[in-house]
Amino acid sequence: MHYPFIQKLAQLVGVPYQDPVLKERMKHVSIRGRVAFCIVCLEIAIHNLKFSSPASRHLLAKLWDYVSSCQLDIWHEEMAEYLPSSIIETERFQEEDFDDLSEYNFGQLRNWYQTLPKGVVDMIECIFVVGTVNLYGEITGYSTETLKPTMRVAGLMQQLKLPLPEIARFEKSAFADFDGWGKQVDKSFFALG
Fold first, then answer.
1. What's the confidence (pLDDT) of residue 53?
2. What's the average model confidence in pLDDT over 48-74?
3. What count of Cα atoms within 13 Å lies in the side-chain half-sphere of residue 79?
4. How far apart are CA 126 and CA 58, in angstroms?
5. Mean pLDDT along residues 171-188
6. What DSSP string runs through the chain?
7. What is the reported pLDDT for 33?
8. In angstroms, rounded to a whole number, what is the distance separating the alpha carbons of residues 144 and 138?
């Protein structure tokens, strides 16, 4: 399945964070580490803006599956159903349109997405881009294709006046590991301390 909106989204979503030190450090973080950084940013946003709900917990669990998955292509297919752009544009749930998402979770996520600030919705879409844009192609350099949307998430955090997580948590997952992807780890690998 091809999602043409990925390229458009990677160019249009948010404002990149203009911190050259963070950008340079993030170049050395694996793609799994970049996804984890973006998820932690989303967690901070949901918590600080008081948008926690059963839908947010379900979405975050699905996002966190990425860092431990050995089948990122399957994560890609499943996660595509959870995207705000997939759910909000769908008038009503039709079982044949969704393989992984239940009607109940569809309704929960749809209602929740409609309450979120645009910056938080954009973060969710960016996480998907970071996790999938290099899946079916060659990774070159330090993967500018994943670095740009990662820095956009940092920019969205800045726009929302929210603190960024400490980058050292994510530097433990080096870009040098497994051709840029980083090792499969449990989400606790990125915990504080």
1. 97
2. 97
3. 25
4. 18
5. 96
6. ---THHHHHHHHSS-----HHHHHHHTTB-HHHHHHHHHHHHHHHHHHTT---HHHHHHHHHHHHHHH-S-HHHHHHHHHTTSHHHHHT-SS--GGG-SS--HHHHHHHHHHHTTS-HHHHHHHHHHHHHHHTTTTS---TT-HHHHHHHHHHHHHHHHTT-PPPPTHHHHTSBTTGGGGT-----GGGGS--
7. 98
8. 12
CB atoms within 10 A of CB 44: 17
- Whether pLDDT at 4 is above 70: no
Q: Token pair of 128, please?
A: 């998907």
* Tokens matching residue 88: 């909000």
Query: Does the pTM of the predicted model rise above 0.70?
Result: yes
Residue 166 C-alpha from the chain's centroid = 17
Q: Angle at which helices 31-48 and 54-68 pack, to 10 degrees?
A: 170
8 pLDDT exceeds 50?
A: no
Strand, coil or helix: 15: coil
- Encoded amino acid at 142, one letter: Y
Judge contact between 139 and 43, C-beta under 8 A. no
